[in-house]
Amino acid sequence: MKDTLSAYDNVTVIHEDVLKGDAYDISVVATQLEGGVDNRGTEKVDGTIEISTPKQVYDKDEIIEIQVKGVDLRAVNAFSFALPYNQQDYEFVGVELQHMNAMENLTYDRLHSNGSKALYPTFVNVGNKKTLEGTVDLFLLKFKAKRQVKFGLKIIDGLLVDKRLNTRRSGVQ
Known about the structure:
Blueprint: H1 2-5, E1 14-15, E2 18-19, H2 22-30, E3 46-52, E4 57-58, E5 63-76, E6 78-85, E7 90-97, E8 104-105, E9 108-111, E10 117-120, E11 122-124, E12 132-145, E13 149-150, E14 156-161, E15 167-169
Antiparallel strand pairs: 1-2, 3-5, 4-13, 5-12, 6-10, 6-11, 6-14, 7-12, 8-11, 9-10, 14-15
């Protein structure tokens, strides 16, 4: 999958004069792969993505598990969001999938040229796969605290995409 999409890494798709996030860009290609999608009778995308942690204060070297939850999801064929973080406070450890159906995990951790850091959880169905529906725990993001921190990370630029490439902003906290 990543090899198939690598030719599109530098492509930015513009739809309705608004720049869309990774979930949209990748969906333009992914919905055409493996025989394409059957979008007859499909519902329009809806729902939100939320994050939570079991506590707010973490000690140095403690693993922080961030629960990513879909709330009232409908027809979600792809989604992405950004989770900016201070690399002096956090180290990204990994993703533990829970209820993601057959979605491809294209999450990446990026250091921007201005020195800021952000994690970009990005998931997409390739071809005609089952969409995400309902309220469900999707996955855990795991970070290690580099020093004592009070958890305060916030989702930005959340985007849900359906098989017809309709979009809904989500998870902006």
